Amino acid sequence: MKHLRGDRLEAYSAGIEKHGLNPLAIKVMEQIGIDISNYRSKTVDEIEDVEFDYVVTVCDHAQKTCPGFSAKGFSAKPKVVLRAFDDPPKLAVAEPGLYKQMQHYQRVRDEIKEYVMGLPENI
């Protein structure tokens, strides 16, 4: 989001749990010239002081687990949008080799890029 739409949108990334930075995610983003190697995994509790207009959840689990997002201390209730994407680590774990694993990451990366390029109009 920051790379593609940073001139129009201020983006934050956080989850309901910390999982660390996935090495395959770093690699697949490097393929398109985006360095995320210095990013870190955060929870929504770490950004609760930020006032959001929109919250985009990218998986069904987050939508179900975090339905009261505005109740976490946010002064204004943001519009919550669900745009679920497949979870590359879950798909890749069943694949026998790195090439097949990377295909899941690349596909989801490209789907997210297409979605982000349509923001904010498509929410």
What would you say about this model in short?
With 123 residues, the chain is mainly alpha-helical. It has helices at 2-5, 23-30, 60-65, 88-92, 98-117, and strands at residues 54-57, 79-82.
SSE blueprint and pairings:
Layout: H1 2-5, H2 23-30, E1 54-57, H3 60-65, E2 79-82, H4 88-92, H5 98-117
Parallel strand pairs: 1-2
Helix pairs in contact: 2-5
Task: Provide key terms for this protein.
mainly alpha, Rossmann fold, single chain, 35% helix, 7% strand
Description:
With 123 residues, the protein is mostly helical. It has a single domain, classed as Response regulator (Rossmann fold, 3-Layer(aba) Sandwich). It is built from five helices and two strands; from the N terminus they run ααβαβαα. Helix 3 links the parallel strand 1 (54-57) and strand 2. Helix 2 (23-30) packs across helix 5 (98-117). The two termini are 14 Å apart.
